[in-house]
Amino acid sequence: MKPEPPKIPQATTKRLPLYYRFLQSFHNAGHKRVSSQELSDAMKIDSATIRRDFSHFGALGKKGYGYDVANLLEFFRKTLDQDEAANVALIGVGSLGTAFLKYNFQKNHNTKIVVAFDTKAPVEGMMKSDIPVFNPSVMEEKLLEYGIELVICTVPSRSAQEVADRLAKTEITGILNFTPVRLNVPDTIRVHTIDLSVEVQTLIYLIRNKSIE
Q1: What are the protein's GO molecular function terms (predicted)?
Q2: Segments making up each domain of the chain, as ranges
């Protein structure tokens, strides 16, 4: 996968796919240009934040005119490598993993789940939601066979580091970790952890302390 552009704040990087999604909506609605305030109203993000994010990439708009929707959409498409699909593997086909298989990303994004692994699956594989699911005993060879760059990990917490240790010996470069475990991996692998319980607790705290920005 293409590395993140240098000197771009992580918070800005996380918003780039959102900008791309909303610009697609404006483009599909026939808008030729859009202002930072219009994007702000649609995305519920402060317009100053949007202008600051865009400034990291140079002059994307014109004062008094706003942003050309088609040009901006093309810029973010290239920035996010939307033309180059990334093959994704799912490890752990429980309740959350099954939801991922049913949704899959290929309908709306440049990524798609092409193979999955679960301890209940046979070595020879089985089909689930049109995706082949194999036993983890053949994980390394199948990751190579399917050209996997990114892995979504939804295994039980007790198995997370063991899985990460095996992945560290493969060619994958990213793990989207849905376990609460902080994985130890080599610098060649980027880990993005989403702890759903922490996210819920954070939201509860924020809605009960509305004075916090």
Answers
A1: DNA binding; DNA-binding transcription factor activity
A2: 10-79, 86-198
**What gap in Å lies between CA 151 and CA 88, rounded to an integer?**
6
Judge whether 147 is annotated as a binding position: no
Query: pTM for the full model?
Result: 0.69
The tens digit of pLDDT for each residue in 52-108 reads: 888 888 767 766 678 889 988 888 888 777 556 688 999 999 999 999 998 876 555
10-79 architecture in CATH? Orthogonal Bundle (1.10)
- The mean pLDDT value for 159-188 works out to 95
Whole-angstrom distance, CA of residue 79 vs CA of residue 11? 16
Mean pLDDT (whole number) for 110-125: 92
> Distance of CA 29 to CAs 23, 67, 69, 74, 75, Å?
10, 15, 11, 16, 19
Annotation-wise, does 97 bind a ligand? Answer: yes
Q: What are the backbone angles phi and psi of residue 33, rounded to the nearest 5°?
A: -145, 160
Is 92 annotated as a binding-site member?
Answer: yes
Domain 86-198, architecture per CATH: 3-Layer(aba) Sandwich (3.40)
